């Protein structure tokens, strides 16, 4: 399939080797800081028709630490609840800024993915958060996971956020340059 980058490529044909556009994408992935990388990858990805998200091992490691530290998440290990972690470069805004979301996967999607839930962090909105804010954000997203009579389920906020998060970390824990404690 020809695309804008391949048309500009000196080979200008369908090729089986890695083209210069993909080599550039790999180089950016290795060398650039995340903010620069996000902008450049988004531009090149659109030209190559690539998806604007990727699995994220660091998010999984953070989640594992939080699940192991807080007893309220013991059920995740006990019931072997499988969670996938994705960083998305998509710009996710509505009436309010969406930093992350947690989704219960449908049975038809689970046929292709080995997860019960998918937690997505939106890099455009979380890129300015400090590490402690990201820890609280992961804690927040894990609170959406629950067990009901029919199995795993999504737990909605009890108010705009979860009451206990607001009580511990304040209403503006996710604001730019906000100092929050390290929950780990």
Describe the protein.
By secondary structure, the chain is an alpha+beta fold. The chain folds into 2 domains: 19-50, no CATH class; 54-169, Zincin-like. The protein has 9 helices and 6 strands; from the N terminus they run H-H-H-E-H-H-E-E-H-E-H-H-E-E-H. It has helices at 4-8, 20-31, 34-48, 57-69, 74-78, 107-110, 123-126, 131-142, 163-169; strands spanning 53-55, 83-88, 100-104, 117-122, 145-148, 151-154. The strands form 2 sheets. It has a 4-stranded mixed sheet. Strands 5-6 form a two-stranded antiparallel ribbon. A hairpin with a 2-residue loop joins strand 5 and strand 6 (151-154). The longest helix has 15 residues, at 34-48. The radius of gyration is 19 Å and the shape is globular.
Task: Indicate the topology.
Layout: H1 4-8, H2 20-31, H3 34-48, E1 53-55, H4 57-69, H5 74-78, E2 83-88, E3 100-104, H6 107-110, E4 117-122, H7 123-126, H8 131-142, E5 145-148, E6 151-154, H9 163-169
Parallel strand pairs: 2-4
Antiparallel strand pairs: 1-2, 3-4, 5-6
Helix pairs in contact: 2-3, 4-8
- Structural class from helices and strands? alpha+beta
Low-confidence stretches: none
Query: What percent of residues adopt helix (DSSP H or I)?
Result: 40-55%
Proportion of strand residues: 15-25%
CA-CA gap between termini:
48 Å
Q: Compute the gyration radius: what is it?
A: 19 Å
For the secondary structure, the number of strands is: 6
How many domain units? 2
Any idea of the CATH class of the largest domain? Alpha Beta
CATH topology of the largest domain: Zincin-like
Biggest beta-sheet profile: 4 strands, mixed
């Amino acid at each position: 399939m020809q695309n804008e980058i391949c048309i500009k490529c000196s080979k200008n044909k369908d090729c089986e080797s890695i083209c210069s556009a993909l080599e550039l994408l790999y180089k950016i992935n290795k060398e650039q800081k995340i903010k620069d990388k996000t902008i450049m990858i988004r531009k090149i990805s659109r030209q190559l028709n690539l998806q604007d998200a990727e699995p994220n091992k660091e998010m999984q490691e953070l989640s594992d630490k939080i699940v192991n530290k807080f007893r309220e998440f013991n059920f995740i290990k006990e019931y072997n609840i499988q969670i996938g972690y994705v960083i998305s470069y998509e710009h996710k805004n509505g009436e309010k800024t969406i930093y992350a979301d947690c989704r219960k996967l449908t049975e038809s999607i689970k046929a292709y993915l080995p997860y019960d839930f998918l937690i997505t962090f939106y890099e455009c909105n979380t890129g300015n958060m400090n590490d402690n804010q990201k820890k609280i954000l992961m804690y927040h997203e894990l609170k959406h996971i629950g067990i009901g009579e029919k199995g795993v389920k999504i737990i909605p906020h009890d108010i705009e956020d979860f009451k206990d998060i607001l009580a511990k970390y304040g209403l503006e824990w996710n604001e730019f340059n906000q100092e929050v404690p390290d929950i780990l």
